[in-house]
């Protein structure tokens, strides 16, 4: 059965994999994820990414898969909601946000 939900988890305050100060930590997290098939931070199968996401790259990969209608669900700061709404419009995705 194909997945109908794809989660992308980011710790935006963490250093990215390309930052030399974080290389050791990122390598250790990658090795643990490979061995345990779970993310050390969340316990989910999806690996948590460090740093800020490249929305154009992520959305392009999803669009290239041509798996049908894509809906982006978001809950968080309004500034990022505005950016994601613009990106969703560019790629033809539906945007939904939750407010608590």
UniProtKB/TrEMBL annotation:
Keywords, sorted A to Z: Oxidoreductase
The keyword Chloroplast appears for this protein: no
Gene3D superfamilies: Nucleotide-binding domain of ferredoxin-NADP reductase (FNR) module
Ferric reductase NAD binding domain boundaries: 4-86
InterPro entries: Fe_red_NAD-bd_6, FNR_nucleotide-bd, RBOH/FRE
Pfam families documented for this protein: NAD_binding_6
Protein name as annotated: Ferric reductase NAD binding domain-containing protein
């Amino acid at each position: 059965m194909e997945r109908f939900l794809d989660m992308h988890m980011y710790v935006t305050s963490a250093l990215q994999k390309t930052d030399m100060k974080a290389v050791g930590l990122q390598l250790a997290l990658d090795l643990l994820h490979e061995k345990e098939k779970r993310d050390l931070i969340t316990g989910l199968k999806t690996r948590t990414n460090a740093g800020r996401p490249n929305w154009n790259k992520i959305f392009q990969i999803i669009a290239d898969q041509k798996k049908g209608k894509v809906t982006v669900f978001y809950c968080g700061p309004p500034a990022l909601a505005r950016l994601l709404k613009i990106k969703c419009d560019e790629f033809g995705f539906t945007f939904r946000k939750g407010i608590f």
